[in-house]
């Protein structure tokens, strides 16, 4: 599997915790997607899934299986998924080298 999306240690810890809290078994993976919307035109979507769809692209980092649909793959190849907590933490953050512009909240982007 290629490293389409990588994750930081903090993101891995948070994903592991969510999977444990939700009683997701190892048939589940993290689905990372891009959808239209947000103040910059495209926004990130992160969910847990256990059903593969036609055209899905898979990679794995730090033992976490990550899935991207074919459209999202074009926008997200090389992206790092991070997690920030604490007083100013925003939750999951995407560090996308393909984004030419991101909004102030960091939840949407354009290419």
Automatic annotation (TrEMBL):
It comes from Sphingobacterium haloxyli. It holds the Pfam family Fe-S_biosyn. GO terms for molecular function: 2 iron, 2 sulfur cluster binding; protein-macromolecule adaptor activity. The lineage of its organism: Bacteria, Pseudomonadati, Bacteroidota, Sphingobacteriia, Sphingobacteriales. This is Iron-sulfur cluster assembly accessory protein. Gene3D superfamilies: HesB-like domain. GO terms for biological process: iron-sulfur cluster assembly. Residues 5-106 form the Core domain.
